[in-house]
Write the structure tokens for this entry.
Amino acid sequence: MADNTNSNEKQLYYRKKHKEEMKHHILTFAMMIAFTLIAFGLVIAEVSALFTIPIILVLAAVQVLFQLYYFMHMNQEGHEMPALMIYSGIFAALLTVLALATIVWW
Amino acid sequence: MSATARKAGFGAALWDYLTTVDHKKIGILYLVAGIFFFILGGLEAMLIRIQLISPNNEFISAQFYNEVLTMHGTTMIFLAAMPLIFALMNAVVPLQIGARDVAFPFVNSLGFWLFFFGGVMLNVSWFVTGAPDAGWTAYAPLSIFSEGHGVDFYAIGLQISGFGTLMGGINFIVTVVNMRAPGMTYMRMPLFTWTAFIASVLILFAFPALTVGLFMLTFDRLFGANFFDPAMGGNAIIWEHLFWIFGHPEVYILILPAFGVFSEVIPTFAKKRLFGYSSMVFATVLIAFLGFMVWAHHMFTVGLGPIANSIFAVATMAIAVPTGIKIFNWLFTLWGGSIRLTSPMVFALGFIPTFTIGGMTGVMLASAAADFQYHDSYFVVAHFHYVIVGGVVLGLFAGIIYWWPKMFGTMLNEKLNHWFFWLFFIGFHLTFFIQHFLGLMGMPRRYWKFLPDQGLDLFNLISTIGAFFMAVGTIVFLYNVIITQVKGVKVSGDPWDARTLEWAIPSPPPFYNFKQEPLVRGLDPLWIEKTEGNGKIQPATPLGDIHMPNNSFVPFMMSLGLFIAGFGVMFQGTYWVLAVIGFGITAGSMLYRSFKDDLGYHVHKEDLEDEKGDGSNG
């Protein structure tokens, strides 16, 4: 039927899109496992703490971003407001920690 | 009988308010509770002023003075100003954006009852071992070593009401982001909605600092923690930081919605659109942004060092810029307008110079070096009363009078409103203008007594006389409220000839607000329809079934549970049983809520067609 062609096209488009998303999911999932292994590996191998701690923190931050953007769909449209709120919250929290670190604890 | 009109007896009406999830009724609950606590805080203020009417006065004891002073500040900020802000937000924001309710009606009700029980908890302290006595800021280590249970009541009471406020803030963020009517873009939102939105964002980011601080205080006092005890390796300054990281955004949470009220009142009664709408929005956001990096200006004398003091001083002075933008925009809105001196407008006109004075003393206090002279003197007391009373309270009363017809369908007596304004306004300046000079002459704040013949006697007497004027003004307002509601003369949906969406529906609005979703064609949508259309808002959707939430008693029970548990945690020993019962009630209510599928109900299209009128101007 005539209108079925249209929905077939749509279906094909979505199938392609979902396939791509699946690829991203698996890729980020694999990377997150790798990151975790690296983090544990660094500790087990007793690499200097001065090196290990920043690396683990960076890996953690990247994993959080993977989680938010790929698994919680912040990379899709319509998530501008949540993103704005999250970043404003991070900004307020960072400001607090930075100020306390410099004026109270330093 | 139609599906939407019901008459009920007193018991049924009470039950209706205890279980309501309707934003308009929750607004009324906030209003009633807020005015009750405002009167309570006002009585405490009168006790303070009577004590200070003459030197060496023995009207109240030193300990009681400390308690009254602490509770005056705490009550006015947390239990009077905050709920009155939420009263206006609940009553107005959903109507201004063309929504049928807030995003989470159940959470809205929960927010109110948490606030209410927190407030009751704080005031129960009067009857149990005495009220909190460490000042509204509860600085450690004084608050740690304060005897009795006063400060415990402060920590736990504010914790409970703080949960409610946080929920309310989140609710309004989601409402404004998701529930705007077709055509209501962000840059078409009325300024009150904008400021309510930004204030909610501030609540979301600022209240967690208070929550953390109060938990630490609770654990220090009740469970042997030592966060703030230097002798045990704690740090008393951390409390001050946490308190003001919350506390400074808090003053913007209060003042921004008041700015929003004036930004509605002034265009309506100057019959002009708001001058510089987009710069007003920009200034609001900028104030919120800067509001998070100025908290240490409350702590200049703590000894943070010259670099930290300078940074915070500059950031603080920077806030004067967006605030100045707002003041000039209001003045330019008035410029060339056809001004009607209704009572909300008179409040707005009184606000502009008063708040500007408060802003000027604010810049004086912001210069760190000079602040060492002003710190903890009556100069500071005068400053923050100029911004809180001259800004927030005048704004709240302007808003309450302006939206009274929308909330109750009646009109407060204009003559009495003017009497209220002049008594309150003159009394305010008598009370607080002179306190600037008391402060400069060296009178410290929070002191129970002052000595005779130090040049302080006359000014303190004048200040107390001013306080009585304010009290009489407030009594006139309450009298006005009572006679207006007793007479109950109904008014139309748009008694002020106003500009925004809430005035397009009857007063008070039907419980579903808008029969059909309104179509918004620009800023000041009703005014656009009045000047370019037929004076009625056009619907954006055809008439259909309306989905409504069911009433629920669960929020009341959840809050009651925390209220009971608070006493158990505080008194411990055998009282732990109270904590078990209280937390049991709360957890049980939450479980009940989780397992019960409450999908609400529908108002059917056929019943809506039976309703009189078309849902537009009554």
